[in-house]
Amino acid sequence: MLTLPDYPWESLRPYREQAARHPGGTVDLSIGTPVDPTPAVIQDALRAAADAPGYPTTHGTVALRQSIADWFARRRGVPGLDPANVMPTVGSKELVAWLPLLLGLGEGDVVVRPVVAYPTYDIGAQLAGATSVAADSLRDLEDDVRSRVKLVWVNSPGNPTGIVRSADSLAEVVSDARSLGAVVASDECYSELGWGDWEAGVPGLLEEAVSGGDHTDLLAVYSMSKQSNVAGYRAAFVAGAPNLLPSLINNRKHAGMIVPYPVQEAMRVGLADDAHVQAQKDLYRGRRERLIPALEAFGLRIEHSQAGLYLWCTAGEDTWTTVGRLAELGIVVGPGSFYGDAGEGYVRVALTAADERIDAAKARLVAAVKGP
After folding, report:
1. Is pTM, for the whole model, over 0.90?
2. Nearest CA-CA partner of 247 in 149, 102, 105
3. Tell me: the pLDDT tens digits for 111-122?
């Protein structure tokens, strides 16, 4: 029997119950699930493709793969991507969890993930029987560990920290991984949500300044959930690595990992429409600008948070103490300790709540400081 750790979010239950007792109701800023409507252009595309009696293709329709290649050229600075080296996935979490196994990793192999990271990178290694190691640079590893590295995960913009890695930093990872014969997979699902210096875009794994124009052993992973409010569609894709995609596609065919055709059509149409992405980003910008001063007034210091949907905060105390103090105000946040030992003492505050709830959180935080 496969035994995995308990799902971490279950441990928030008593804090959710406490928050629910607040007279104004709960403000849930924890998990980060989109709450705004799915854009009409995407809903219309899904409906138009609803008559789908046949099996869809694992590789994705030619039209969808071309739309993804066009998106990479237009939004990610990667012109000329071959649509053959693109594949839709059933959300990005599915790929994160199963990639080590699909690549054939097993006992003795090492999967490297960021020091503060989404826990599914560790779960993916465990599913394959490999070993997960936390490091932000391969140069930090002992020689014995380095020699066994087979897969390196980078996550920029990072979840939960919002850290953005420069092109030079990513290129260093690529160079080091190639010297070891390891695959680099880059989880880039927050790349459309850069703030401040990164407003115009963040560096990506497949761009020439990082890859050197060679996508061998490089996989860029992207999800439309955040940019397009389609978390319920499970709409994501992976691209790059012409040496790996044929085997990944074949393995996924055997496993029945297929994105439904109506969702593929919704993806195709959604990726061609930049207007709704900008409109959604502007909504998040407004929520971010209202929350930051309120959190700081409450005594939280915001670190990194240069991109993405989260504010990475610390009050210089135990994580669960901060979680509890916020729950007393009816506000639920994500414990930083969910993201590795280096996350202890931090909380992750999501921007994914309706404007009315964001305003309620702001008012409660400010009132808590001013007192009665």
Report:
1. yes
2. 102
3. 999 999 999 999
